[in-house]
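User: Once you have settled down, look closely at the record that follows, taking as long as you need, and be ready to discuss the fold:
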Amino acid sequence: MTYYLSTTLGPGFEEAIRRTAAALKEEGFGVLTEIDVRDTLKKKIGVEFRNYRILGACNPKLAHEALQIEGNIGTMLPCNVVVQEAADGKIEVAAIDPVASMMAVDNPRLKEAAGQVRDKLKSAIARL
């Protein structure tokens, strides 16, 4: 089992960020955080890195449901979605597979909820 869902887009990093946020929104997710890894690595350790952003996506309804099922599941929230530029200039969008990440938690109800989140993330990635 792989731990992420992904697709590859043509060139255009900022456009891919915009499209990804829009696709997530259509599935009920908001982007709570955006981490610019390239900028952070440059500022913190002086390293050049490719365009790479981590979007912290959250579907409030499903997050609330998961928190009611398993109180400490917030340690695994929000769902990370990575948008990164490949060597060939294409853009990869990859999202955590919540079912794979929840394998460590022995709670059948949570696994069911994670399946709903995975379906929505799969749908968002398919829109791209």
